[in-house]
Design brief:
The complex is a heterodimer of chains A (110) and B (163). Chain A is mainly α and 110 residues long. Helices cover 65% and strands 5% of the residues of chain A. Chain B has 163 residues and is α+β, with helices and mostly antiparallel strands. A 7-stranded antiparallel β-sheet of chain B has the order 1-7-6-5-4-3-2. Classes of the chains: A mainly alpha (110), B alpha+beta (163). The interface between A and B is large, with 52 and 59 residues.
Chain lengths: 110, 163
């Protein structure tokens, strides 16, 4: 995943209201009104958040003028998840080697 | 509709790992902060570290070059944020994300705790978002919850199976 895409996705996720919106959408499609309901912010503010999420490819919005349901898209989340996983694997491998090296250090009298 | 967690919990870590190392804490600290030792383990099996320069103090630079098993080299520039010997080491990526074209900066905290059998090594890593990378405060991290992402993914996959 390119650094720009990953950064845009992380920025989109770096807001608790947006994460709340995604959590709701993970249960199924919703309209803007339905999404705004649990938050004590204006519809305009919710729309701004939806734009950020849409730009990051995390949601898509239906075309029906009246309803414009929002839907969660998995691909960017999967890319972030894969990237975090590769970072975890890097550290697992490193600390495995650190553990072995520490034993070697002690055998050598450190 | 189920209740939603809207406020971010205090722990915004993306990655949390812990391990017991069979060595005294002071030795683990040396292995973590001395270049001649760091090059022996950093990256894990198959990786070598042709360059490792560390100025271990807050604001000090860590200039590092890793070489992968297939011979590719890549530089990692970091800066130390907090140094408390022998218990805590915090560093973050020093590069400008857009300029370098690499992954977003991570801020990583390693803590060492003496326990029966040796030392508990704990790593907590968080990522800086594009919006926050210019923030003056040292604690400008991206607020991402790994478990939240995985929960969402599981829900989305279930949804997609129904459709």
């Amino acid at each position: 995943m390119s650094s720009d895409r990953l950064s845009i996705t992380l920025h989109a996720l770096a807001d608790p209201t947006r994460r709340g919106i995604l959590a709701r959408l993970s249960q199924g499609e919703a309209t803007v009104n339905e999404l705004a309901d649990p938050f004590e912010i204006s519809l305009a503010a919710v729309s701004k958040h939806l734009k950020v999420l849409e730009k990051a490819g995390l949601i898509t919005r239906g075309r029906e003028a009246q309803w414009r349901p929002c839907r969660l898209e998995a691909a960017p989340l999967e890319e972030v998840s894969e990237w975090i996983e590769s970072y975890r694997q890097f550290w697992e491998a490193s600390v495995d080697k650190l553990a072995a090296y520490l034993k070697q250090m002690q055998r050598r009298g450190h | 509709m189920s209740a939603m967690q809207i406020d971010s919990p205090p722990d915004q870590a993306v990655l949390v790992m812990t391990r017991i190392l069979e060595a005294p804490r002071e030795l683990v600290w040396v292995a973590l902060t001395t270049p001649e030792h760091v090059v022996e383990w950093y990256g894990g099996d198959g990786f070598t570290n042709p360059v490792c320069q560390m100025d271990v103090r807050p604001g000090g630079l860590w200039h590092h070059v890793m070489r992968s098993p297939d011979g590719h080299e890549f530089a990692i520039e970091s800066v130390f944020v907090e140094v408390v010997e022998p218990e805590r080491l915090v560093w973050k990526g020093a590069h400008d994300v857009a300029a370098r074209g690499g992954p977003p900066n991570a801020i990583t905290e390693v803590t060492l705790q003496t326990v029966p059998g040796g030392t508990r090594w704990t790593l907590v890593s968080r990522f800086e978002s594009v919006a926050e990378r210019d923030r003056a405060a040292a604690m400008g991290f991206a607020h991402l919850i790994t478990q939240g992402v995985e929960r969402m993914l599981a829900s989305v996959r279930r949804l997609q199976q129904k459709q």
